[in-house]
């Protein structure tokens, strides 16, 4: 599963506007605009390609990791290490951005105070995230990252390609949650997408026990994880989060990692470091560096430059990448039921995203 977003992430992270954007526009020569835009667009497409491949490959890495690692403790280690790397760097960037801001509000912020209100008073600038920001990141981080841990549990009995196809139902869950919470009226295409998705999930689930020993319980766990990820995405738009996407994700990684560590305490009895294989350690390192740090940063660049509907295509490219990698590297068996069910789910996601592209 892809990272915080979670989904934070990702899906709810805002962008800093205002002074910074105006300043850039003021100093950039007009003749350099088109070339700068072309370079930025090229970089964004490269970043989207990274998201396609890396997030699609994380299912393979999770499957390899849980071969000799307890799933919840592996997910806790992945997110805590990534959070301990991202959080201080993002916090330092927040401090630097305030200190190097231009005149006016920026100059006051650089001195550690905010411009006064009508009564002339000044308010201290908080470099450290507020209590509301920590609470918001905790809610989102727990939903998104515990979902990641649940995917690891499911992949103990479910092939990585099938797991990715089940997680691809996240846009369908998003559409359903939005319809319930906001009483949104669904058009014909989204309704058709939901129907196709349900048919695909039903096909995958009904053939579970006959598809190479796949557990129906594992399928249900992964579907529950997809629902939790979708709910975390919705909550990310309703809670208070830092304006910096990197800082928000670092905080979510830390909060989710701590909860995963608590939930995984029962797994310590089965954790034997000497019995963890080298390829499981490599898988964990890949998930930390590529899955949680590199791909998240690439996603952040892509979503700021390319159209949202274009970036959202990762939702149905990732499972294709995952199925191919699982078949080629792990020799996972593709049955007619998996192919048909996967085709229905991917088709459903295409319908939903193209008609109602998710906001990020």
Structural class: mainly alpha
End-to-end span in angstroms?
A: 17 Å
Radius of gyration: 21 Å
Largest sheet, in brief, is: 2 strands, antiparallel
Summed over residues and divided by their number, the pLDDT gives a mean of: 78
Helical content band: 55-70%
- Strand order within the widest beta sheet: 1-2
List SSEs in N-to-C order: HHHHEEHHHHHHHHHH
Q: What fraction of the residues are assigned to beta strands by DSSP?
A: under 5%
SS summary, helix count: 14
Number of strands: 2
The global form is globular
Please characterize this protein's 3D structure.
- This protein is mainly α and 360 residues long.
- Helix content is 69%, strand content 1%.
- The protein is built from 14 helices and two strands, in the order H-H-H-H-E-E-H-H-H-H-H-H-H-H-H-H.
- The chain has helices at 19-27, 33-65, 71-99, 105-110, 131-154, 160-167, 170-182, 188-206, 216-235, 245-263, 278-305, 308-311, 314-329, 336-355, and strands spanning 113-114, 123-124.
- A two-stranded antiparallel sheet has the order 1-2.
- A hairpin with an 8-residue loop joins strand 1 (113-114) and strand 2 (123-124).
- Helix 6 runs antiparallel to helix 13 and helix 7 (170-182) crosses helix 9.
- The longest helix is centred in the first third of the chain and has 33 residues, at 33-65.
- The model is unreliable at 4-33 and 104-124 (pLDDT under 50).
């Amino acid at each position: 599963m892809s990272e915080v977003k979670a989904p934070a992430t990702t899906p709810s992270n805002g962008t800093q506007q205002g002074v910074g954007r105006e300043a850039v526009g003021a100093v950039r020569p007009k003749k350099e605009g088109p070339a700068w835009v072309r370079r930025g667009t090229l970089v964004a497409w490269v970043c989207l390609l990274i998201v396609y491949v890396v997030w699609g490959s994380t299912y393979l890495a999770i499957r390899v990791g849980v071969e000799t690692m307890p799933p919840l403790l592996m997910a806790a280690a992945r997110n805590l290490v990534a959070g301990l790397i991202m959080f201080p760097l993002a916090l330092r960037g927040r401090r630097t951005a305030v200190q190097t801001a231009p005149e006016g509000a920026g100059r006051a912020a650089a001195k550690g105070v905010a411009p006064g209100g009508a009564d002339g008073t000044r308010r201290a600038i908080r470099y450290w995230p507020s209590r509301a920001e920590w609470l918001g990141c905790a809610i989102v981080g727990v939903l998104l990252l515990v979902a990641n841990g649940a995917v690891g549990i499911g992949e103990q009995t479910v092939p990585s390609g099938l797991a990715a196809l089940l997680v691809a139902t996240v846009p369908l869950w998003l559409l359903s949650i939005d319809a319930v919470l906001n009483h949104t009226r669904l058009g014909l295409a989204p309704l058709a997408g939901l129907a196709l998705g349900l048919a695909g999930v039903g096909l995958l689930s009904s053939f579970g026990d006959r598809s190479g020993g796949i557990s129906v319980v594992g399928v249900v766990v992964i579907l529950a994880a997809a629902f939790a990820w979708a709910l975390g995405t919705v909550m990310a738009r309703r809670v208070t989060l830092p304006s910096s996407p990197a800082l928000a994700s670092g905080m979510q990684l830390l909060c989710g990692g701590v909860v995963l560590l608590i939930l995984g305490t029962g797994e310590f009895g089965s954790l034997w470091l000497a019995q963890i294989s080298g390829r499981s350690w490599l898988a964990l390192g890949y998930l930390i560096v590529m899955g949680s740090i590199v791909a998240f940063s690439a996603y952040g660049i892509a979503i700021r430059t390319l159209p949202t509907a274009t970036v959202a295509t990762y939702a149905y490219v990732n499972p294709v990448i995952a199925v191919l990698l699982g078949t080629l590297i792990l020799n996972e068996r593709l049955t007619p039921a998996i192919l048909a069910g996967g085709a229905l789910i991917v088709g459903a996601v295409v319908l939903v995203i193209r008609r109602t592209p998710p906001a990020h």
